[in-house]
Design goal:
The radius of gyration is 23 Å and the shape is globular. Strand 5, helix 6 and strand 6 form a beta-alpha-beta unit. The protein has 10 helices and 8 strands. An 8-stranded parallel β-sheet has the order 2-1-8-7-6-5-4-3. By secondary structure, it is an alpha/beta fold.
């Protein structure tokens, strides 16, 4: 009976403690929510966002909303859109155009000639508008070996990289997963991209490290960032799995990842590239920025 009474008393005590902790947690959550709504960017991270994730919002309205959140750049935008961004005091961290094709890229010599002049023009326009990076893609494998992919990419990018050097523009090749979203894409591993950067051997050719894609392909995100920091010019976010919000609904610890990025001395942009599921798309974007604004 004494043992039963003791256990009963312990359970009652545990219940009271749980209730007390629950009340404290609710108060803390309320306080955090209030802080979140009055968030001022810390200034350690240059925040950007990918336009394609918010195509349902008219561009000028999106510029207004992004600027209010503390975002400095709306990227993967084209030269025709840059004057609108500039009107709102925003820039484009990564420029693109119709020539940028994920599947038909530089690993196939058959595409080199038709891509050359459009990319030259895009690089020139980026330089004129203060856009630091222009995106390029490896293209799909279509049975090519890694060695042939490196050789073809280096051959196709050689003149473009030299022109980019003169214009002080960095060409960045995006790392994408070939398991879920981009079947057969060649530049689907960090080491593949690193070897291409070494082969080209220019400070104006680097990688766009997409955290979402590389979590799917490789994992070990923080160690990879630390090891290959000098090869990376830009970062993209996204929740895994699903490529939605980067909060606790997914498996990546974004505050820790961003902290690791900053510790490498990175001064470029970190761009939100998740597909929002919230009815209020800008609220989802604001949440993502705040998660990364350590």
């Amino acid at each position: 009976m004494q043992r039963r009474d003791s256990l009963k008393q312990a359970l009652v005590g545990a219940g009271l403690l749980s209730l007390t902790n629950g009340i404290s947690l609710m108060a803390a959550n309320t306080e955090n929510k209030t802080t979140s709504n009055n968030h001022t960017p810390a200034g350690k991270v240059n925040h950007s966002v990918c336009r394609w994730c918010y195509q349902n919002i008219e561009l000028e309205a999106f510029c207004e909303g992004a600027k209010e959140i503390g975002i400095k750049s709306i990227e993967l935008t084209s030269p025709a859109e840059w004057p609108i961004l500039q009107k709102y005091g925003l820039t484009c961290a990564v420029g693109t155009g119709q020539v940028a094709n994920i599947g038909d890229g530089f690993n196939d010599t058959g595409f080199h000639e038709k891509m050359y002049q459009p990319y030259i023009e895009l690089i020139d326009q980026a330089a004129e508008n203060g856009v630091p990076n222009v995106i390029v893609f490896s293209g799909n494998r279509r049975g090519k070996s890694d060695e042939l992919g490196w050789e073809n990419c280096a051959k196709g990018l050689d003149k473009l990289v030299k022109h980019a050097e003169k214009k002080k523009i960095t060409l960045i090749m995006e790392l994408l997963n070939s398991k879920v979203n981009h079947k057969d894409y060649h530049c689907d591993r960090t080491e593949w991209g690193v070897k291409l950067v070494d082969k080209i051997g220019s400070p104006n050719f680097k990688l766009l490290y997409d955290i979402y894609h590389m979590q799917i392909m490789e994992g070990d995100i923080i160690t990879t960032i630390q090891k290959y920091k000098d090869y990376i010019a830009h970062y993209h976010t996204g929740g895994v799995p699903g490529r939605n919000e980067i909060n606790q609904s997914q498996e990546l610890n974004y505050p820790a990842i961003v902290q690791a990025i900053l510790k490498t001395g990175f001064k470029g942009y970190v761009a939100q590239e998740f597909i929002p599921t919230y009815a209020d798309k800008l609220a989802a974007l604001k949440e993502g920025v705040q998660i990364c604004d350590i």
